[in-house]
Amino acid sequence: MSSSTEVRPAPAPGAAVAEPRRRGRGARRQGSDRAPFRRYHLIIYLLLGAVAFSTAGAFAWVFNVSMKTNTEFIGTRPWSVAEGWRWENYTDAWNSANVGSFFGNSVIVSVTATALGVVLAAFAAYPLARIPFRGSGLVLSVFLLGLMVPWMVTFIPLYVTMQDLGLLDSRLGLALVYATYNLPFNVFVLVGFMRTLPGELEEAAAVDGAGPTRTFLRIILPLMGPGVASVSIISFLQNWNEFFYALVLIHSPERMTLPLGLFQLGQAADYGTNWVTLFAGMMITVVPVLLVFALLQNQVTKGLTAGALKG
C-alpha cells in the first residue's frame, strides 16, 4: 500500500534552506508600505497648487503696487514691476491716511472682544461639559442656535439696542457685539474639548475638598491650552476682518477699525489719484494676520480636532 505523503530528501549539511513562499494579502504588500500614486492625486495636487499660486500672486501684486508712485500706477501696466522700493508709501499711509489710528482701534477692539468672548465661553462651557444637570442639552442647543441666525436679521434690533444703551459709535460697544457674535462658536468648541478630559480629575479634586470653581480654575483651565488657543485665534481673526457691524455701529473717523478705514480710503481713491496709499494700507492690514495664523496654526488644529478624536 503506497503512501500519499511525499517524502522530501533532507538538505545537505551547510545548504541554505529555502523559505516557503508567502501567500495572501501580506505578500502583495512587501517591498513598500506607501499607497500607490493615482491619477486623481495629480489632479488634486494641480488644483491645490493653482490655488496657492493664485493666492501668492495676489499678495505679490498688492505689494508691488504699494511700491509704485501714483503716476507709475496709472501710467503703466498692472503687472509691471515697480521701478523702486518706495517704503515711504507705508509711512504716508500710516500717518497721513490715518492707517495707524485705524490699526490701533482694530487692536483695541479685537483684543478686548476676543478676551471677553473666550472667558465667557470657558465659564459657560464648563458646566455644560463637566457638570451633569437637567436641561444641559437644551442650553447647549440654544447656544448653537446663535450660529444659525443670519446677520441681516439682527442688525436693526442691535442698532436700536446699542443706541438705547448709549454704546453707539463707541469701541466698547463694538467689542461687546463682537464678543457676543463669537460666543456660540467658542462654547461649541470648548464643550467638545472639555469632554475629552478624564472625569477622574473632578473626583480627585472633590476628595481634596475643592469645589467646582476651584476645580475649574486650578485643574481644568490649565489643561485647556489648545482649545483656548484655537478659539482665541479664530475669534481674533474674525474680529480683525469684520466689516459690516463696524460700518453700521461706527460713524466717527477716529473710531474706525482697519476694514472700515480701508473702505473709506477706497472711496477716496475712486474720486482721486492716491491709489498706492490704499494698497500700502492693505498690506499693513493683512501681514499681521498672516503672521499670527502662520505661527499658531498648529494650536488651531489641535483645539478643533480634540473633540472629534474622542473615542
TrEMBL record:
Q: Name one GO cellular component term.
A: plasma membrane
Transmembrane segments in this chain: where? 42-63, 102-126, 138-160, 172-194, 215-237, 275-296
GO terms under biological process: transmembrane transport
Q: Which UniProt keywords apply?
A: Cell membrane, Membrane, Transmembrane, Transmembrane helix, Transport
**Positions of the UniProt region annotated as Disordered:** 1-32
**How does the UniProt record describe the way this protein sits in the membrane?**
Multi-pass membrane protein
Q: Where in the cell is it found?
A: Cell membrane
Q: Start and end of every ABC transmembrane type-1 domain? A: 103-296
Q: Which InterPro entries match?
A: MetI-like, MetI-like_sf
What the entry lists under Pfam families is as follows: BPD_transp_1
PROSITE patterns, sorted: ABC_TM1
Q: Which domain of life is it from?
A: Bacteria
Family to which this protein belongs: Belongs to the binding-protein-dependent transport system permease family.
Q: Which PANTHER family match?
A: ABC TRANSPORTER PERMEASE PROTEIN MG189-RELATED, ABC TRANSPORTER PERMEASE PROTEIN MG189-RELATED-RELATED
Q: Can you name this protein? A: Carbohydrate ABC transporter permease
Species of origin: Jiangella ureilytica
